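Researcher: We plan to redesign the surface later, but first we want a full-length starting point. Tokens attached.
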């Protein structure tokens, strides 16, 4: 199961397979926002006094790889990571800087991001039946199988001057390149915008 989880993470990081979203409620006097589950309104266990991530419809689970698009309250797309000092920028993938000049024009930001696959539930130290559904389009299944095979075979080492793990690793890379050429991933996540559907407006 750990190999499958790593494979799913590798594919979701490389390809825009799963889109996440939330509303960032901008706070007066605050310009730096840590995009963490601790600041999510859906997280009832968090003790943070201010929860500026509005995610009641789609709970934020710390699955952010990369911010893809940012919109203001009027649904106008905002440029980010352009000027280092004038506009919105990311210090790290999960730390967003929103200057006061932006906050003067909008009090919320709608964030769309490339998301990781949900964590597979396991019971540590216990054998459990694998009943969890994997959220992966069929065209990525072969790549996932190559990744898992490479991870499983690598500990075996060299077998008659042929390293099976490295062989499957190369097959995984070739399969990913094929998928990139055929462009199966989500190109324009604007078409998958659930801004209205999720009740944010």
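Model: Full-length starting sequence:
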């Amino acid at each position: 199961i750990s190999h499958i989880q790593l494979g799913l993470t590798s594919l979701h990081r490389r390809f825009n397979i799963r889109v996440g979203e939330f509303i960032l409620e901008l706070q007066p006097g605050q310009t730096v926002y840590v995009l963490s589950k601790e600041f999510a309104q859906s997280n009832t266990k968090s003790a943070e006094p201010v929860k500026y991530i509005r995610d009641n419809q789609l709970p934020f689970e710390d699955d952010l790889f990369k911010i893809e698009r940012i919109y203001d309250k009027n649904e106008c797309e905002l440029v980010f990571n352009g000027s280092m000092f004038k506009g919105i920028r990311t210090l790290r993938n999960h730390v967003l800087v929103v200057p006061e000049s932006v906050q003067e024009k909008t009090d919320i930001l709608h964030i769309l991001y490339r998301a990781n696959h949900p964590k597979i539930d396991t019971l540590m130290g216990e054998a459990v039946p694998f009943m969890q559904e994997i959220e992966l389009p069929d065209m990525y299944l072969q790549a996932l199988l190559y990744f898992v095979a490479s991870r499983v075979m690598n500990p075996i080492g060299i077998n008659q001057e042929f390293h099976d793990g490295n062989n499957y690793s190369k097959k995984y890379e070739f399969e990913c390149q094929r998928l990139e050429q055929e462009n199966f991933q989500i190109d324009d996540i604007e078409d998958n915008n659930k801004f209205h559907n999720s009740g944010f407006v």
